Amino acid sequence: MELKNCPFCGSAADIYDNCSNVADEFWAQCQNKENCFAIGTAEPSFDSAVKAWNSRQIEDTLRARLEAAEAYIQAMEDRESVEAQPECFPDEEAYEQSQDDAFHAVCKAREAWEKAKGNGRI
Ligand SMILES: [Zn+2]
Predict the structure, then answer these.
(1) For residue range 76-118, what is the model confidence (pLDDT) as tens digits?
(2) How far is CA 36 from CA 5, 17, 30, 33, 95, in A?
């Protein structure tokens, strides 16, 4: 499992442990130690320390929203492109089918966008 970079400064991070024989603790720490002091939570295993450090709920939520918004915009642009170029289709039927397909793609992308927005909470 790859360790993500620091969520605050973007620098590389590494996993440390307390080398205890009694109760092992592992944590991730930003390597930009002169300017950033980000340290992950203490975890009972290496893997759980990586998982905790890599957990970016807000970032993941915002990325999903961004991807849905970009897909929605792309679907609208694709539809505009179809509408603007009827001469690019071999016949009226093909043009109408492409219009329908583009319309449904926009509807589907809008539904995904509405779902990604959720109730406004992050
Ligand atoms: Zn950092």
Answers:
(1) 999 999 999 999 999 999 999 999 999 999 999 999 999 998 8
(2) 12, 19, 7, 5, 57
**What is the 92 CA–ligand 1 centroid distance (Å)?**
58
Cβ atoms of 58 and 7 within 8 Å: the answer is: no
Q: Which tens digit of pLDDT belongs to each residue from 50-78? A: 999 999 988 888 999 999 999 999 999 99
Measure CA of the first residue to CA of the last residue in the chain; give whole Å.
26
Is residue 26 within 8 Å of 17, Cβ to Cβ?
A: yes
CB 14 within 8 A of CB 36: no
Residues 1/50, Cβ–Cβ less than 8 Å: yes
Query: If you measure from the C-alpha of residue 122 to the centroid of ligand 1, how many angstroms do you get, rounded to a whole number?
Result: 22
Rg (CA), the chain: 24
